[in-house]
Amino acid sequence: MQHAGGSPLPPHRPGQTPSPAWSPTDHQHHPAPPPHPAPGYPGAPMPPTPHHPPQNPETTGQVTLPPGAPFSAPAPPPAMTAAPDAAATTLAVLLIGPAGAGKTSVAKYWADHRRVPTAHISLDDVREWVRSGFADPQSGWNDHSEAQYRLARRTCGFAARNFLANGISCILDDAVFPDRPVVGLGGWKRHVGPGLLPVVLLPGLEIVLERNAQRSGNRRLGDEEVARIHGRMAGWYGSGLPIIDNSHLDVPGTAHVLNETLTRSITSPPNW
Question: For 121, what's the count of Cα atoms within 13 Å in the CB-facing half-sphere?
């Protein structure tokens, strides 16, 4: 079974604080215009000249993306009604975890078995769209590899917004570090919108090492690197984000727990 893609550990930069969360711009209210005389009477204005609004540069497909917050969290159900069904609600989900946690496998399975249209967007897959000039972090974390990570995240965020604007749910997977702003939650919230629901997938270290050993190519990391990544991912405990320990769960079982977790998140969104 192919497990989630991973990436080597970016350098930790002490003293950095997470990027500020995205906040929507307040709507401005304008007074209603004064009434005009009826057409044909003195003082009546000339008929307006037909006006074509300028093209919105952020347009994809047949849907113009809304400005500001492109995606908001589903409204919680009113009191005394049934809990929402996460399997049948349009959602944007960010699945976080270390290399070998099973992010990609779980995200694919979850997207495949929903009752509403759902897309899976893998950050590692998008990074590897670059062929010539690919900055492989395993060769060293530098300005080029970091720039390609940033570009891949913006591309994933834009794709997610486009799917959501067309009524299609999406699940993204990424190794987001709690102590590294460049790969932090603030950027994902800006790219996708405040309705994004993050969930951490964090099995035990022995399980992660075992799963990583089954991988091949540039997605297989050294044991020491995997251990360091797993240790930093433990920083999510106490963050308020929902965490799933899938050490003893297969992919369908983890997807089932993910649905239950998302149902609770819709009703009571995490504070992040």
Answer: 25
